[in-house]
Write a structure and sequence with these properties.
Distance between the termini: 23 Å
Mean pLDDT: 76
Number of strands: 0
Order of helices and strands: HHHHHHHHHHHH
Low-confidence stretches: 162-168, 179-212
Shape: globular
Structural class: mainly alpha
Amino acid sequence: MSGLLDLLNSPMGKQLISGVAGQTGQSESGTANLLSMAMPVLMGAMKRNASTPEGAQGLMSALSSKHDGGILENLGGLFGGGVDQSVMDDGAGILGHILGNKQPQVQNALSQKSGIDAGSVANILKVAAPLLMGVLGKQAKQQNVTDANGIGDVLGGLLGGGSNAGQQQSLIESFLDSDGDGSILDDVAGMVLGGNKSAGGLGGLLGGLFGK
């Protein structure tokens, strides 16, 4: 699994998309489109938080305990009877931690780009966040990452290497760090979330995944 786009295209990714769609009452195609935009933004936020020693250590502690990838072992059970409230609460906590006061802006931008109402976007992100942490925990375990120093490499690998990696990361950081005056957010969201301003960046990569 070389990155998030590969994950979403994998059998597990399709099960994840189907389960999240069923949980939130959205179409699978709409959910897939939203997750293809949202997951790199969330991963980028995690990478930014892990750039400090304290942030990296906190993330490492979470991955070595609660978020070790176990949630991915029984997706059928997770979605079979509806996602447990504790998972949703966990997701809300993760989002609050990694996005902070930018969370409403991120959700609104995703809503505008996906055509899904902001309330449903919030619920989809609450389900997706623990699963994303599970993916990260599983990768960290597979790569035998035992300290905070290696976690940035795992995050970078999931976000994708290559010539656009730095550009993508700077766009994600700009998006998350925008001052919220509207115009900058719209402009950067257009680049990150599938606009035409940067066809070679994240938008181009993600847009090709589901033929959107």
